[in-house]
Amino acid sequence: NALVVARTLRSGQKVVYPGSVVVIGDVNPGAQVIAGGDIIILGTCRGVAHAGANGDETATITANRIVAIQLRIAGLIARAPDEMDKPAYIETARIKDGTVVIEPANR
Questions:
Q1: For the whole model, what pTM was predicted?
Q2: CA–CA distance, 82 with 65 (Å, rounded to integer)
Q3: 47, 69 in Cβ contact below 8 A?
């Protein structure tokens, strides 16, 4: 069971859910999405996204564009690089070899 949020999240808004979360819109700076499972953002992630909040290291964060202030998967924390061109593909952040990596979603 996933929670579907059919709006853009603005600064100060926070979504916390024990399962997966799908956001139909952007996650703007100052907004937070915290999910026990995966996070899927059908827009740009600029705020804080924490997937696998209950320790699930297989959780992922997928968005049209990831330029997040902070990404968390389970207990690991990362952030998107400062200088990023707009990718030509949907991106997924996942844990790989003990670190959070951002790569094309189709991998």
A1: 0.89
A2: 13
A3: yes
Written as six digits, the tokens of 10 are 């603005």
pLDDT, one tens digit per residue, over 21-34 is 999 999 999 999 99
Q: How far is residue 30's CA from residue 101's CA, in Å, rounded to a whole number?
A: 22
Degrees (nearest 5) of the Cα angle 51, 53, 57?
70
Q: Is 34 exposed, middle or buried (0-12, 13-18, 19+ CB in 10 A)?
A: middle
d(CA 11, CA 31): 5
∠ CA(44), CA(46), CA(47), 5° rounding?
A: 125
Q: Where are the beta strands (DSSP E) in 24-98?
A: 32-35, 39-45, 48-51, 61-66, 70-73, 76-78, 91-96
